[in-house]
Amino acid sequence: MASTERPSDVIQKARRKLTEALLQIEPDLILDAADSHLLLTQGEYCSLSRMKDPHGLLQNLIDTVLGKGESAHEQFLDCLENLRHAFPSLCPVSEYLEHGPVNLGNESKIQSTAAKLMSGAEERGAAMSPEGGNGVGSLDPSVSSEEEMEVEKPDARMRPSGTGSKAEYPEMALPTSQGSAVTNQDPTEDGNGVQKPGAAAGCPGKDDAAGGRAKVPSAQCIPGFRSVDSAKLSADEIICKGRKQLIEIVHKDLELVLDDLISQSIITEEEYEALVKLEEDSRKQSTGCSSLKQSTEVQQEAVQEEKRSAEERRKALKNILTKLKLEKNQRKKFSLQEVLKISSESLKECTPCTIEELPRHFLRKVLALNVTARSTSLEMETSGDQRGKEEKKKIDESIFLSIKMDERDSVNPLDVLCAVLLCSDSILQQEILSKMSMCQFALPLLLPPLETSKCTLMLWAMRDIVKKWRPHSLADSRGFREESLVLTPMPTISFVRMGSLTFSKSKLLNEFLSPSQQHYDFFLHRDMEGGNVPREITDGLVEIAWYFPGGQKSSDLFAEPVAVANLHGDIESHWVQFSFLSEVSSAVFIFVECIGEREYTLLSSLKESAAEYYFILEYHGGNFSETLDFLKDLAPVLKLSSSHILAKPANSNTAKSVEQLRSTVGRIISAHPKSVSIDSMAAVARELSIQVDEDCQECQDARYCALEITGDVQDVAKYKKEMLKLQGDLWRNLARVEKELCRMERQGDTPSEEYRSELKGKLMLLRQQQNKCDLTMGLINFIHGIQPSQLAKKHYFLKWMKFNLDYVARVTLSKLRAEYKEKCTLLGDDGQKVTEIDQLISSSSLGIEHFMRELGQFYEAECLMVREGKLSKNRRQFLDFPSIAADLMLEGFPLELIDGDASNIPLQWITDVLTLLNSKLRSRSKLFVITVLGVQSTGKSTLLNTMFGLQFAVSSGRCTRGAFMTLLKVREDLIPELGCDFILVIDTEGLKAPELAKLEDSYQHDNELATLVIGLSDITLVNMAMENATEMKDILQIVTHAFLRMERIGQRPNCQFVHQNVSDVSAHDQNMRDRKHLLEQLNEMTHAAAIMEKLDRDIRFSDIMDYDPEIHNWYIPGLWHGVPPMASVNRGYSEKVFELKKYLFEFLRERSVKKRPKDIPQFIEWIKSLWNAVKHENFIFSFRNSLIAEAYNQLSTKYSEWDWGFRREMHLWVSEQETLIQNSSADELDCRDWQHELQQELLCGEQQILENLYKYFESGGSNLHLVEKYREDFVRNTNSLKHELESYSYNKCNDAIHIKKGCQKIDTFQTEYLKAIEGKVDRLLEKCRKEKNKLDHHMLEREFESMWKETLSEISPVHLENRQIYSDIELCLRKNFSRRGSSINLNLQKAKSLLNYRMNSFQMKSGYIKPSVWERVKSLFSEQDHLCKAEELAKSLMSECMQYINEKASSRGDYDETYCVELLHMISEKLQQEEVKNLHTSPSFEVDLKLHILGEAAHSFQKMHEDFIKENDPGVRLEKLKPQYFSTFTDLYLEKDAHQTRAKNFCDRCLHPALVDYVNKRLGIEIVDDILTSTQSIGYASRSFFQFTVLKELLEERNVNNYVKYSRSYEEFVKSWIWRQVLDHYRKKGDLKNLENEILSAIVKKIREVLKNLMHKGVEKLSEFLEMFSKEMQKELVMSKDSLVGIQFKNMSNPSQFVACVENFLPDLQKHILFEFDALDLESKLSKLPVRPQDEIFKRVFGCGKQCPFCGVPCEAGGNAHKEHFAAVHRPEGLGRFRWEHTEKLIYELCSTSVVSQCRFRNAKTKWEWHPYKDYRDYYPDWLIQPDPSINASDYWKFVFKEFNHDFANCYNANPADLPEDWKNITQEQALEALKETYNMK
Length: 1882
Prior knowledge:
A nine-stranded mixed beta sheet has the order 10-9-8-5-7-6-1-2-11, with helices on both faces. A seven-stranded mixed beta sheet has the order 12-14-15-13-16-17-18, sandwiched between helices. Helices cover 55% and strands 6% of the residues. The chain is mostly helical. It is built from 73 helices and 22 strands.
């Protein structure tokens, strides 16, 4: 780099390439590097760190640096060079240079920087002329510095109030009290003298932030300075042209300018010191006239001292921040949100080991209200050996050295406090001081000049403090005052010292302020822990403490509140602070040992001060005359009398001195001195150039924005009615209508659905009224206030809103309480006026939550309008509202979950806010929920605030209403341990609230609240701070009721009982009996709750949750140590709360391993389902949760997979056993123990499912705990499945054995016949070979035919008897009816032959139904309805019987009479069921039904018998073998090589039929597998998925006949639907051929392997080879024995040749078989499979087959052995053919609505007596009918009903229903959406 180039030019030339290079480095690292080189101010650092675009960040960083001086440019280049060491990929800056002119595109920013410099200097300069000409200084350069100094000499002492806004040397100037607003009541104060927020005198306006000073002209007003818009000037040119003016401006306040320059790193410390020295030299040379020599020397000395102290303060501050490791936090401040993060450190209770741990230790302790927070003691780690050595050391000077080292290695607590405050943002500062105030710590009023040369008034930091006290004037009436601390005027008594003291002033003040019998360390002093450590940065700190009376005249120190200010340090060194205290104080007490010339001179300057001065002289018994002389001289100056002098001898009694001091202060207060609020002190501070912390622009902008809103609030109730229109009566009415929609309590005689339609209309009307409302100005301003991109401004705004609204609420409540007390005294409890005031008090709360609630209502109304199609989506106005609320939650502000005024949840609002929150967190939103429950005003909010440092409202008049939730971030290091990203804390309103006690449903309200928040929580803290036994019992009943409900739905939150106000150290042991008694009460309450929930089992508290009385009870001392208002927080309270906190997080650690925490989407679903259940009152039977539904569906899906796996294995096993049985001989059958093998297979399959079930529940999957209660159902299902498969397998194997044994005799005959034939063939062969002439084919055939006939005539094969099966079946039927009575037999005698009856000819007759006489009399019988049901029964029974008949007919066995007996048993068993008896069928129905079923069976079994004869008749079998024997005969005669022929016959006659049979046995199983793994498998995954798939298809088809079939004959519909689906699947895709090929290829491959293996065994005979082959394949193939015998006859082929030929024929055989399969019709092929896929899928999705007793909807519970039947959605009862008695109109009521209504029903079950729908389980205990989860849940069936109302009526011979009007508006799209929502398919 050329030495001639300036650093700024180098940066400009390298800018582009340098930016590209730096993009490879993390932006945060670059910012930190720039910050460490002091290149950035705090504001610049924060602004840059918020930028998300790395390129933009680097560009702005370079622009910022270029806007500074050349030294900053050089430092930037040094920074880049240092970065090269950390990142070797970076090149030297010279390599990034680009040749060409310097780019001045950013010069405007540099000009702006210079302009700001001049403008800022002007603002700081004291020589600016204010409007009106009252300024002290002048811009005239002719005024010399000497003249200026003379004007400001201290001899002038006090300026008149109009002479200027501030002194050039404010440290030597003291403002006057003349005309000051602090002495008289300001018109902006209220009637009590409390200043109204936002109306302080002297408060800076928007355009006048400095407060009272003239508007400063901008830099462009300076002559010679041109606007950057008019000419592009470089920074150098700007400075050059405005040099003269700049010199004048800078000269006026050089100190402040230099301080700003060094704080912004524009000049180095060396440059700073050099400039200061030059300025000092200049001042020395310009010393003025000799007449003012003495005062000038004092002034010069003070100035010099101030310069030195400023430099020392900077170094001390730097040293302290370095010690405490807070250098970075000086610019990147601590935030409250960051401090409140849950970290591993925050869960540890330990003394800090190093100095750098002190700041965070202080923050943790003070936010936890621990009174030891100020301790700076370090834990000294000393090993045992070292300690032993130290004990043996000699006594020497080292012991003193160690004491000094301890002091040197520690930090004074006040230094830590100031450092923390400097490094905290304004919100955190406010929280720190609020907590300190609760601990009765003195608060910093004025921070010493540390970062700048000015002190800082901590006004903003104290804004949040509210105090409550009882002045003696209200003692008799027992009234009290509750005011904001900063707005309350009160006397201020200041205590300062001049010179050094031998005693501690702060210690004396602590004694002075402490009530009798109580001692508090308000002020830190030298005798306290850490107080002896020298202060480094806090000299000049002014602390303030207060005394507030409690109304006890005998014990109160003062009758009215008084503030006590304490200046740390000598007043001579801190004259500004002393001046401030003199101005604002009613009296100033000066502690002094002696007064000399110097002290006299300083004190004389106080002549014009209005404050009253008192001197406390520390007397050592020496010469006191000089002091006395000076006091006499000061007496006329300061208006002193003897009462103003308090002597304190060195050895005097402290108590006496304190009493004397109290007496003096008491006299001062009784004289009614001036009262000043802290807010009013700000004006004085500004006059003295003291910074006010809330004067920053963001704070003031936010303040005015808040004032625009709250300034209009005069009458809270009126304001809410006019400005927050949506949440008044409208919102309460909406809440009532929503609950009435669920509870139907005021239904009367109106039909349920009609009533629901009316309610929905009201709901829509109310929402329309809301939607018509416009945003009020207050709400618009509120939205504007919470939308700024600057977080600081938003947070300031919300704070100002809180302060102002709280102020209004306090004023309003104070007046209303006074009026209420007056009216109660005059009128008693009966006065209407009293009631009105009571209501006003309840409605006078106004907070930010009300404004947020209003936004939520606007949003909800708009959402409903859009959903109902009344507003287009592109016209939405409030779409951004949820995002605003989500941002606030992320920033730590609570969100209202339950509206306490309307007791309702704005569900759409909450859902969308939390959904957006989850989106903003990028779904990293796992959270644990902690909730507190308890009686009102028992410290629930305080408990949470103490535990987590939160800010839930705790002041009187602001008791929590409803429930609020706050999000706490978990630090990254703790996330793996806890398993969650956030802790969600829910604060609830108090149970048993007095304002709700008079309401009838107050218990229900509390129950709802407890149920909801306990259901949402992982841990519930039950606050037991009460003494009333009845009240405790009520709370326990509410809590146990809620826990019982949670246990019933699978949610088991943890519960901790917190007993407050128990402080005895032996509390835990002493209360053992109490804990036992508590458990007894809990058991009693649980039993009572179980009765209320209609549970019939005895249940205890330990049954519903894991409760250990020793672990789950916490005894916490009372909050206050002492008597309020002067009580401090009890240390024991804080420590016990911390112990509880540690336990909670340890519990969460363990819980996260067993149970995954919820994420926000799951939390939303819990809110929805819990709130819906709560609204329905009957919680257990109305709780529906999509998370539970999803978890249950997943479990059902898994179980379905396991179910089919078990079935598949058993199908394969049965197939294998059937093959083995068919291949076995009679002896082998008797020897095989197949039943034992069956039991082993069944046991293995059952155990596998149970193991899978166990592993599934132990896998830690999402929400598995919610379906834990269903585990037993699935265990029972498994057992039921085992029994089903056992029966199936046993029957199949028995049938195979029966068939095999039935053929045994035939096989024996056949063997004998074949031996005879083979002998004849053998002899014929010998005979023909002896013939001389060779016989041709015809001759051989003739000879063979002759031999065959002869042989058959000789052996005379036995022929099987052809029986008339229908006769046997008819006989069996008559036996079945033989004992049934004459009417049955009469009907049977009239019957025709069975051959005349078939199932398809069965028709219903009116005579089939025979009602009782009583039913006829009552006219309650619907014959048509019963006929329809009987017809469905008949169809179902015939279908079941037909399946049995087909199964037996396809078995290839002969008919057995047990088949008929089994059929009759099936029919009789069905007709004996209770629901069938209720149909009142006549005997003729049973007779005709059995005749038609057995007639069908007779035809099938007759054909079965005939087919068996054809297949197994010996003669027929021999005829089938005739060609084979003839072929063998001819081959042998002609001496042909017959091995190919034999191999071909083996393939065609043995393998071909065996392979076809094998494929058929396996094909059904493989088809099921294929379908369950296809794209349509989701439809068969579970019953719920199946229902959704079917109903969706029905909706798309819109065929009324299908709906009728679905409703009337569900089983038949499902079977036909599945059959159609299977056929469609394989017709479209043709995958069946692939399955057949795969099965066939697999078995052919095995055949090849077996043949190959047998070849290696050296078998020589083919017969032996074939026998071994058959044995190897006996489990797979059933080969014809007859064919094998024929192939083996006279077969002398070599096995190897035979095998080679067989292998050659196998490919053709495989193709031929596949061709045959392909030629078959798909339907006939599938219907003849042994395992029919449609039946297996039907078993999978049909379930138990039970249907709702009211509407007929099928049960969707998993398995067949569940205890309860349930369905996701119910349908209008008219679809179940129910109709009104007199009108015959179809009923459109939904049973899911009726069960929560006041309606009644009657039927045969109730013996036709009316019974409430709510108690339907009295008659249907196994059915669980839940209310609809939402208003639109039943829209699917409503749409179907309204579309096909007339069609259904025609089908059911009824009249159409009169449907509600709103049903007609439902569209197909809405119906589909409702279906998706019901089955969680969105």
